[in-house]
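re: the backbone from monday

yeah here it is again, tokenized this time
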């Protein structure tokens, strides 16, 4: 019998409210965030938004190493449907940094070009074709650095709805980052997507969300950023995503990538300073219980 792969758990700065969107909320300093990751026993992280952590590889490795952390990759939201040269330049810069720090994955999102994730203009057929070809070129840029590129379906990008996700899978050979929260908010059951396309699961972002608020975002009744502030994301096991079914399925299917705890958080001045750490601790505990039941 082939041994099942071990489950590798990582974190991400967004769980501490660190986001690329202007005006998102209070941003905790890097030593606090990385220190709390280490205190929770986390040993790996994604990079976070551009400019939050150092872009010099030596400086970044030194900072992460001082907290017992390694870099596994990072999120890159770029406009893919126009000006491919600009997108490729951004991808080259990020891929070189990730590779120099021993990372494995570039998490790509099809940005709209607008600030935030609350508006989404429609694409023409020509723009969609450019999006697909640019994603393929970025895959090749990353591969030259030894990295795997995954496309991240994400609220407020050009791969949000189930129809868009499945169209991307049909038109591109890139694997996906299955983000359990963003998929559900966009109208896709993440477990069913994994079952339908098991060979396209390249990376996992584990989130839990409140279904009622997710439906309000999907219906356009509540802007995404406002919903996050209202508690759209909750610790694993406290929302409406079947996290155990997802973990169990991909594990049994032989997934050997990272399980990244990513709970999008927006902090304000009234937020308890220890809220992110408490929520991530709760998610880690829930994931640990799931892993213990896998046998």
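seq for it, each position gets an aa:
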């Amino acid at each position: 019998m082939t041994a099942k792969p071990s489950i590798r758990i990582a974190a991400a700065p967004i769980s501490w409210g660190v986001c690329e969107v202007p005006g998102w909320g209070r941003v905790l300093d890097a030593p606090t965030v990385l220190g709390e990751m280490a205190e929770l026993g986390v040993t790996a992280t994604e990079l976070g938004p551009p400019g939050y952590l150092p872009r010099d590889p030596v400086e970044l490795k030194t900072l992460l190493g001082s907290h017992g952390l390694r870099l596994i990759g990072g999120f890159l939201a770029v406009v893919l449907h126009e000006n491919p040269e600009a997108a490729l330049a951004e991808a080259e810069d990020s891929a070189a940094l990730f590779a120099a720090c021993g990372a494995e994955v570039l998490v790509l999102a099809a940005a709209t070009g607008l600030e935030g994730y609350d508006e989404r203009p429609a694409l023409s057929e020509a723009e969609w074709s450019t999006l697909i070809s640019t994603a393929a070129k970025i895959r090749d840029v990353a591969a030259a650095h030894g990295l795997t590129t995954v496309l991240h379906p994400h609220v407020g990008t050009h791969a949000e709805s189930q129809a868009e996700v499945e169209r991307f899978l049909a038109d591109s050979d890139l694997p996906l980052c299955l983000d359990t929260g963003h998929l559900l908010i966009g109208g896709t059951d993440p477990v069913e997507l994994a079952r339908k396309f098991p060979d396209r699961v390249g990376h996992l972002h584990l989130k839990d969300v409140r279904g009622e608020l997710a439906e309000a975002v999907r219906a356009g009744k509540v802007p995404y950023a406002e919903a996050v502030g209202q508690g759209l994301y909750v610790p694993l096991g406290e929302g409406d995503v079947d996290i155990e079914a997802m973990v169990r399925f991909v594990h049994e299917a032989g997934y050997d990538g990272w399980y990244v705890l990513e709970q999008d958080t927006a902090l304000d001045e009234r937020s308890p300073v220890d809220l992110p750490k408490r929520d991530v601790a709760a998610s880690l505990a829930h994931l640990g219980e799931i892993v213990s039941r896998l046998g």
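The first helix runs from residue 30 to 39. The chain has a mean pLDDT of 94.
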